[in-house]
């Protein structure tokens, strides 16, 4: 009886360890479905047939992640058909790259395990690689990480000649970073979003909401986000801080978040850097680092009292 009990305990420990070490659930079936729809769309010029193909071969067969992406970004069948027809060179040049994400799944496990060490309350989330309509590299919805594969798999060889000058500049700069090499960082950033309570209500709160994900990603990987806003922010920290402090209570985050570079914004998404800097300053002030990580992730970004208290405690 004693021997049987020992065997039972040993078996339970093995199963428990196996479950704990299981990597995140990474789903890529939307990529194959998109290209099946794409091939059918390309053999006809009938727009009604093209809409039928994108609906029946892609959307109707889509994963919960694709449907979540559509809801989050307001993607429609009409928009997909439009971008497929308008940018044939782009789609032909990006196709082989999108299949490469299937090999990334094993790379996510160690990062998520490390995130769980830093934040033991981590809730599970599924990672979906979809194909969007060139408006988002990644977002989240509930317990889903949603990635736009056409955005994160571009590189310097991707043909962007069909786009407007502004779009060419944006995509060209982004693709020069070879974003697929940083897919693990992007996924951890988005994974952290799935743990947050809600989004911000003004520039300060939303910048911290985004910057928190960048900062926790750095704690997990030891790497800063290799994007222009981070480089620019670190090199121009005081000037960026001064400008941000003057605008941080604005209800709009135009010029700071989800924007491209312009005459008024030297780089896009500079608010991500500021939020990162605020979270880093807060973390550095705290003696209990694990508690600090929990407070950063669980901060109620929709609560002005909580956000302002966090900001004040950071000393930024």
UniProtKB/TrEMBL annotation:
It comes from the Bacteria. The keyword Protease applies. One of its GO terms (molecular function) is peptidase activity. Keywords: Hydrolase, Protease. One of its GO terms (biological process) is proteolysis. Residues 189-290 form the DUF2268 domain. The keyword Protease applies. This is Predicted Zn-dependent protease. It comes from Chitinophaga eiseniae.
């Amino acid at each position: 009886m004693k021997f049987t009990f020992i065997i039972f305990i040993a078996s339970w420990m093995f199963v428990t360890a196996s479950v704990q070490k299981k990597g995140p659930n990474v789903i890529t079936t939307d990529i194959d479905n998109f290209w099946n729809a794409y091939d059918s769309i390309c053999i006809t010029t009938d727009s009604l047939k093209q809409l039928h193909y994108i609906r029946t071969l892609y959307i109707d067969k889509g994963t919960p992640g694709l449907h979540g992406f559509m809801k989050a970004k307001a993607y429609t069948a009409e928009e997909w058909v439009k971008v497929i027809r308008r940018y044939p060179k782009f789609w032909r040049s990006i196709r082989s790259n999108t299949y490469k994400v299937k090999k990334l799944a094993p790379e996510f496990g160690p990062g998520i395990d490390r995130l769980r060490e830093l934040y033991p309350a981590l809730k599970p989330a599924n990672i979906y690689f979809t194909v969007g309509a060139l408006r988002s590299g990644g977002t989240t919805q509930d317990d889903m990480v949603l990635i736009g594969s056409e955005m994160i798999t571009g590189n310097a060889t991707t043909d962007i000649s069909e786009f407007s000058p502004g779009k060419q500049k944006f995509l060209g700069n982004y693709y020069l970073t070879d974003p697929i090499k940083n897919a693990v960082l992007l996924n951890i950033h988005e994974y952290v979003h799935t743990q947050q309570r809600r989004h911000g209500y003004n520039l300060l709160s939303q910048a911290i909401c985004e910057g928190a994900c960048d900062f926790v990603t750095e704690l997990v990987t030891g790497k800063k986000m290799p994007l222009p806003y981070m480089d620019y922010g670190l090199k121009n920290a005081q000037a960026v801080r001064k400008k941000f402090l003057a605008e941080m209570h604005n209800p709009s985050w135009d010029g700071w978040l989800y924007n491209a570079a312009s005459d008024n914004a030297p780089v896009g998404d500079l608010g991500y850097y500021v939020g990162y800097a605020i979270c880093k300053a807060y973390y550095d002030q705290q003696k209990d680092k694990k508690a600090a990580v929990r407070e950063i992730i669980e901060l109620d970004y929709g609560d002005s009292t909580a956000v302002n208290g966090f900001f004040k405690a950071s000393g930024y």
